[in-house]
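Sequence in, structure out. Go.
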Amino acid sequence: MIQDPILLNDWHAVMPISQLVEQNGVAGARVMGEDIVIWKAGDEVRAWKDLCIHRGTRLSLGEVRDGDTLMCPYHGWTYDADGKCVKIPAHPEQTPPTKAVAITYHAQVAYEMVWVCLGEPAYDIPVFEEWDDESYRKILCGAYEFNATGPRMVENFLDVAHFPFVHENILGTQERPEIPEYDVITDENGVTASDIKVFQPNPDGSGKPNWVSYTYKVYRPLVAYFRKEAEQKFAILLMVTPIEEVKSLMWMWMVMTHGEGTDETLRAFQDEIALQDLPIVQSQRPELLPLDLQDELHLRSDKTAIAYRKWLNELGLTFGTS
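Output:
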């Protein structure tokens, strides 16, 4: 396990709860270099080290028994919801040793995602402002796998100046690449950048180019958000799962008040944007995000990224940074 106290004690979105259901209530994942098993004990979700204490087999290869116990696939050792071994089939008369206990982590479900904390949670899972508003349509996009650090991926999400070049004729146009002045604040809630204006070729589906205003927020080092300030509301919650220091998954909840297009069409649009970003972000050097502002050049249009780097430095984040 990678030892970064900031991320160890933070919540990480690991997988959709639907994936767990589809895999008969048990699935494997990897977070910060640690293999974990996610499983459903009744209505509760559990996250443990993916290891049977007996012979080191992956518990994620096992199965849920009687609704609330997890059985190892190798010798049938069975664990209750608290991680205690309650059955050793080869010795049915024997009480399992007290040391036969799984290594457990914190887990909960929010926004139809399983979130895991490998340490002791220092913060709540961030609030997704639009989630409980029934006027919003919700579409989950991802997971997109990047051979890149989580902080590099979040910074790319915050960067609107690349729209005319990486996402030309979709999110921007090279004929109007300028980014006007905007405001950024950093406080106890993270980083907020407001009134970021971008000129886009077709921002509302009418075919008419126009300026669009965005608000960006960074809630936690690997959880960010933006809202499009328009009559038809649109927002995205970005969740990055740190697999290894230079390997990550990116999930996005895309929510909107308008209903044009099928879920598949709208998800395909976001897939295209992510795949355009992927080679750019994977190519960045150094791979670790520099927190010393003298290591790279910065301009006025980089204000959100500058604030993000300063905030990570103040938090003391070491994972994915230099």
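Check: The helical segments are 5-8, 17-22, 150-158, 163-166, 263-283, 303-315. The chain has two domains: 5-117, 137-315.
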